[in-house]
Amino acid sequence: MKLLAFAGSSSTQSINKKLATYAAGLINAEEKEIIDLNDYELPLFSVDKEKLIGAPPIARLFLDKIEWADMLVISVAEHNAGMTVAFKNIYDWASRQKKLVFDNKPVLLLSTSPGGYGAKNALEAAKISLPRYGGDIRATFSLPKFQENFDVEAGQISNKEHDDALKEIIRNFDYEQKG
Ligand SMILES: Cc1cc2nc3c(=O)[nH]c(=O)nc-3n(C[C@H](O)[C@H](O)[C@H](O)COP(=O)(O)O)c2cc1C
What we know:
The chain has helices spanning 15-26, 47-53, 57-68, 85-97, 120-129, 146-149, 160-171; strands at residues 2-8, 31-35, 71-76, 78-79, 82-83, 105-112, 135-143, 150-151, 156-157. With 179 residues, the chain is an alpha/beta fold.
């Protein structure tokens, strides 16, 4: 089983990347890769820019990573109650080369933020969007108050209740690809 994880964020200090990395570490996979959206940066998508630059190879590389994987761990960051531009941008560019961006792969969808709502607006936005583009979301988990509930030095959730909840979700996760 090959696992690809990333955060829907381009912050170099991304708390969602920390959460995605922790969750990926809990999953029993032979091969794991954690990618950073900074390596997939493109101009802001518009049909005009697309006319100028065509189909960017970076978007193809992003699609290749997803095709390589048997499952995806995606932790979406929230900006102004939605998904970040960084994630949406590579998603939009990639969708022009292949409609089913997420390639029918099983997805563990996560989110976290410093606030008590744990970036659930971004999570809900992803829950609407990803399944239309091949994201087979099998489970979701949101960690509220990241700074209180995650030990950055240890790289793990420090709050036992939240940690147990994530571990239970991972225990019950159905990895089998259906699409
Ligand atoms: C422009 C901007 C808008 C934000 N809007 C929200 C928001 O709507 N809800 C929320 O929970 N956090 C919001 N935040 C705080 C982010 O959750 C916080 O910056 C978090 O670290 C982002 O995740 P990341 O570190 O993985 O990029 C916002 C931050 C920025 C910079």
